[in-house]
Amino acid sequence: MLIVNVASKCGLTPQYSGLEKLQAQYAERGFTVLGVPCNQFLGQEPGSAEEIAEFCSATYGVTFPMTEKVEVNGEGRHPLYERLVGFADAEGHTGDIRWNFEKFLIGRDGKVVARFSPQTEPEAAEVVAAVESAIK
């Protein structure tokens, strides 16, 4: 599973296309993307769950599941993100989510396999290689 905090009004929002391509390519092998809407970064995810789902479906053809909107940083951080933020990315960053579209790859055993910065495209070689390794 690739867990991604998402936003509809961000410069990185076009990453939905790459996320959907990963979903389509690997779904039959037990992989899924999980979108986690978050409005903590300059209010770039202002809509309701229904509005977010409609936007993602109509604009990017998103078929992967989306959670309710949650907080990924601060005192109200969702318990899922409490567990995720301790894992380091390739540059050694741990802690708070830096921006929309930070990605966590979870292995079949439920453990974090990799963390990718918001700027790392979903179809980047390092993401695809990590996904393929995790689903073997």
UniProtKB/TrEMBL annotation:
UniProt keyword Glycoprotein present: no
InterPro entries referenced in this protein's UniProt entry, alphabetically: Glutathione_peroxidase, Thioredoxin-like_sf
CDD domains listed in its UniProt record: GSH_Peroxidase (cd00340)
Gene3D superfamilies, alphabetized: Glutaredoxin
Top-level lineage group: Bacteria
Keyword tags: Oxidoreductase, Peroxidase
GO molecular function, one term: peroxidase activity
Family to which the UniProt record says this protein belongs: Belongs to the glutathione peroxidase family.
Name of the protein described by the UniProt record: Glutathione peroxidase
Taxonomic placement: Bacteria, Bacillati, Actinomycetota, Actinomycetes, Kitasatosporales
